[in-house]
Design goal:
This protein is of the alpha/beta class. The chain is about 35% helix and about 20% strand. The longest helix has 17 residues, at about 260-279. GO terms for molecular function: hydrolase activity.
Length: about 280
Amino acid sequence: DPRFNNETLAFLQFLSQNPPPQDNEVETMRLYMDGIHQKINKKLHETFKGTIEEKIVKTNSTEIPINIYTPLNVNKDKLVIYFHGGEYRLGPEYKYPIWLDDALEVTQHIIQNRTAYGVNETAKIGVAGDSAGGMISASLSHLLKGIDFQILIYAALDILGEMPSYKEFTKPMYFLTPEFMKWFTTHAFHNLDEVKDPRVSVLLNRTFKDLPPCLFIVADLDILRDGNLEYQKLLEKAGVQTKLVLMKDVIHVFFTLPGIFPQSCAEAVDAIRDFMASI
């Protein structure tokens, strides 16, 4: 695709040398995806300036480990809960709604106990996430009171695959293909009825009024693009404050691979910083 920028081309070159497994087994795919992140982002490990603390949040049915990143000289008036990664229980071992309920319970716990997580009593709390994590963040913004802002990074909002971008980006070079999405939904849900639940297919909600301000970071060459554009329209129409940043010439997954997409990630982080300063 002539629209690919140099970072996207470098990633595709990497993929040609590290092709995905053919068997599509869950454990093989997990090892493969972990391997991609390790190889590409290795040079960035240990570069975080601040403290990283591990905690356990007890929910009704389990204990969920969380990592708390506190930068040096940090302002204590905002906290972001980020999904995907995340230690909520995953499909296919734990299918919907378990992973969403885990995310909801942990978020609720942090909202109610914010000072235990290094911020002020009056601190604003936001949810953020990429891909499936963006879907979880959008969902929680409907389900929970007390979320002050949301940051959706190429969020999986059109998981039913009804938008035009699903037909536009079908080739493997776009990394996330309709077949790949089907693989994910098969492992995350029991059946199609669950996929149609507005708790996860947020485009199917009847009202979008009074949702927290929302920043969209959207990859231009991504099957999930149009679902995000459509969701922004619905929020705007309902009077919700939104900002959409369309990242040109990049594909899905760029934000989690700063080792190969440094410029694109820096642009996205600048947009996130500006948005959070405006809240």
